[in-house]
Design a protein that fits this description.
InterPro entries: DUF7266. By secondary structure, the chain is of the alpha+beta class. It is built from one helix and ten strands. Strand 4 and strand 5 form a beta hairpin.
Protein backbone atom coordinates (compact mmCIF):
# COMPACT_ATOMS: atom_id res chain seq x y z
CA UNK A 1 0.00 0.00 0.00
CA UNK A 2 2.78 2.45 -0.46
CA UNK A 3 1.01 4.00 -3.47
CA UNK A 4 -1.97 5.16 -1.40
CA UNK A 5 -2.19 8.99 -1.60
CA UNK A 6 -5.68 9.53 -0.24
CA UNK A 7 -4.50 11.26 2.95
CA UNK A 8 -2.51 13.79 0.93
CA UNK A 9 -5.46 14.73 -1.25
CA UNK A 10 -7.62 15.33 1.84
CA UNK A 11 -5.03 17.66 3.36
CA UNK A 12 -4.52 19.51 0.06
CA UNK A 13 -8.29 19.89 -0.36
CA UNK A 14 -8.59 21.24 3.18
CA UNK A 15 -5.80 23.82 2.63
CA UNK A 16 -7.29 24.92 -0.70
CA UNK A 17 -10.71 25.34 0.90
CA UNK A 18 -9.23 27.51 3.66
CA UNK A 19 -7.28 29.62 1.15
CA UNK A 20 -10.31 30.22 -1.06
CA UNK A 21 -12.42 31.07 1.98
CA UNK A 22 -9.81 33.55 3.22
CA UNK A 23 -9.63 35.27 -0.18
CA UNK A 24 -13.42 35.57 -0.39
CA UNK A 25 -13.68 36.85 3.18
CA UNK A 26 -10.98 39.48 2.64
CA UNK A 27 -12.76 40.63 -0.55
CA UNK A 28 -16.00 41.08 1.37
CA UNK A 29 -14.25 42.98 4.17
CA UNK A 30 -12.53 45.33 1.72
CA UNK A 31 -15.79 45.93 -0.17
CA UNK A 32 -17.76 46.67 3.01
CA UNK A 33 -14.96 48.95 4.25
CA UNK A 34 -15.28 51.18 1.19
CA UNK A 35 -19.03 51.32 1.62
CA UNK A 36 -18.63 52.25 5.29
CA UNK A 37 -16.23 55.09 4.42
CA UNK A 38 -18.72 56.41 1.86
CA UNK A 39 -21.57 56.32 4.39
CA UNK A 40 -19.42 58.08 7.01
CA UNK A 41 -18.52 60.81 4.52
CA UNK A 42 -22.19 61.36 3.67
CA UNK A 43 -23.15 61.46 7.35
CA UNK A 44 -20.44 64.04 8.12
CA UNK A 45 -21.47 66.25 5.18
CA UNK A 46 -25.12 66.04 6.22
CA UNK A 47 -24.30 66.99 9.81
CA UNK A 48 -22.04 69.85 8.65
CA UNK A 49 -24.89 71.14 6.50
CA UNK A 50 -27.34 71.06 9.43
CA UNK A 51 -24.87 72.87 11.71
CA UNK A 52 -24.07 75.45 9.01
CA UNK A 53 -27.74 76.15 8.37
CA UNK A 54 -28.27 76.65 12.12
CA UNK A 55 -25.39 79.14 12.26
CA UNK A 56 -26.70 81.03 9.21
CA UNK A 57 -30.28 81.14 10.56
CA UNK A 58 -29.11 82.56 13.88
CA UNK A 59 -26.72 85.00 12.19
CA UNK A 60 -29.58 86.31 10.03
CA UNK A 61 -31.82 86.56 13.12
CA UNK A 62 -29.15 88.60 14.90
CA UNK A 63 -28.84 90.80 11.81
CA UNK A 64 -32.61 91.34 11.64
CA UNK A 65 -32.85 92.23 15.34
CA UNK A 66 -29.84 94.56 15.09
CA UNK A 67 -31.35 96.42 12.13
CA UNK A 68 -34.68 96.72 13.97
CA UNK A 69 -32.91 98.09 17.06
CA UNK A 70 -30.87 100.53 14.97
CA UNK A 71 -34.00 101.69 13.12
CA UNK A 72 -35.21 103.16 16.41
CA UNK A 73 -31.95 105.08 16.81
CA UNK A 74 -32.37 106.76 13.41
CA UNK A 75 -35.87 107.94 14.27
CA UNK A 76 -35.73 111.77 14.66
CA UNK A 77 -37.94 111.51 17.74
CA UNK A 78 -35.32 109.36 19.54
CA UNK A 79 -32.29 111.01 21.15
CA UNK A 80 -29.14 109.06 20.02
CA UNK A 81 -27.59 109.76 23.42
CA UNK A 82 -30.21 107.51 25.02
CA UNK A 83 -28.05 104.45 24.36
CA UNK A 84 -26.89 102.04 21.76
CA UNK A 85 -28.54 98.95 20.38
CA UNK A 86 -27.56 95.66 22.03
CA UNK A 87 -28.35 92.27 20.52
CA UNK A 88 -26.93 88.95 21.70
CA UNK A 89 -27.97 85.45 20.71
CA UNK A 90 -26.50 82.27 22.16
CA UNK A 91 -26.46 79.26 19.86
CA UNK A 92 -26.06 75.77 21.31
CA UNK A 93 -24.22 73.71 18.69
CA UNK A 94 -22.67 70.27 19.13
CA UNK A 95 -18.92 70.10 19.70
CA UNK A 96 -18.63 67.23 17.21
CA UNK A 97 -20.46 66.07 14.09
CA UNK A 98 -20.56 62.32 13.46
CA UNK A 99 -17.98 61.99 16.25
CA UNK A 100 -15.50 64.38 14.61
CA UNK A 101 -14.51 67.93 15.72
CA UNK A 102 -15.21 70.73 13.23
CA UNK A 103 -14.60 74.44 12.66
CA UNK A 104 -16.95 77.26 11.69
CA UNK A 105 -15.66 80.04 9.44
CA UNK A 106 -17.87 83.14 9.42
CA UNK A 107 -17.39 85.54 6.52
CA UNK A 108 -19.06 88.61 5.06
CA UNK A 109 -21.25 86.59 2.71
CA UNK A 110 -21.16 82.95 3.86
CA UNK A 111 -20.55 80.49 6.67
CA UNK A 112 -18.24 77.53 5.98
CA UNK A 113 -18.29 74.51 8.27
CA UNK A 114 -15.41 72.05 7.83
CA UNK A 115 -13.73 69.02 9.32
CA UNK A 116 -10.40 67.32 8.65
CA UNK A 117 -11.38 63.66 9.20
CA UNK A 118 -12.77 63.07 6.64
CA UNK A 119 -11.82 66.19 4.71
CA UNK A 120 -15.22 67.79 4.12
CA UNK A 121 -16.63 71.29 4.06
CA UNK A 122 -20.01 72.89 3.46
CA UNK A 123 -20.40 76.56 2.47
CA UNK A 124 -23.76 78.20 3.13
CA UNK A 125 -24.38 81.80 2.00
CA UNK A 126 -26.11 84.20 4.38
CA UNK A 127 -28.14 87.35 3.80
CA UNK A 128 -26.94 89.49 6.72
CA UNK A 129 -26.93 93.18 5.75
CA UNK A 130 -24.98 94.43 8.75
CA UNK A 131 -21.18 94.07 8.57
CA UNK A 132 -20.05 90.66 9.82
CA UNK A 133 -16.64 90.27 11.48
CA UNK A 134 -14.75 87.44 9.78
CA UNK A 135 -13.59 84.75 12.18
CA UNK A 136 -12.84 81.03 12.53
CA UNK A 137 -14.14 79.16 15.56
CA UNK A 138 -14.14 75.63 16.95
CA UNK A 139 -17.42 73.77 16.85
CA UNK A 140 -19.61 74.09 19.93
CA UNK A 141 -21.77 76.73 21.60
CA UNK A 142 -21.48 80.18 19.98
CA UNK A 143 -22.47 83.73 20.92
CA UNK A 144 -23.57 86.17 18.23
CA UNK A 145 -23.54 89.81 19.27
CA UNK A 146 -24.17 93.09 17.54
CA UNK A 147 -21.47 95.66 18.37
CA UNK A 148 -23.17 99.01 17.78
CA UNK A 149 -21.30 102.16 16.81
CA UNK A 150 -22.35 104.80 19.37
CA UNK A 151 -21.98 107.61 16.84
CA UNK A 152 -23.35 106.11 13.64
CA UNK A 153 -26.15 103.51 13.64
CA UNK A 154 -25.11 102.35 10.16
CA UNK A 155 -21.62 101.26 11.26
CA UNK A 156 -22.32 98.39 13.70
CA UNK A 157 -20.75 94.93 13.37
CA UNK A 158 -21.99 91.40 14.01
CA UNK A 159 -19.43 89.33 15.89
CA UNK A 160 -19.50 85.59 16.44
CA UNK A 161 -17.47 84.17 19.34
CA UNK A 162 -17.12 80.89 21.21
CA UNK A 163 -19.02 80.62 24.49
Amino acid sequence: MPDDERAVSTAVGYVLTLAIGAVLLSGVVIGVGGLLDSQTDRAVRGDLSVVGQGVVANLENTDRLARAAEAGRTDPAVDPADGTAVVEIEVDLPRRVAGVPYTVEVGQDAVTVRTDRPAASVRIPHAARVDVAETTLRGGPLRMAYDADPDDPANGTLEVTEQ
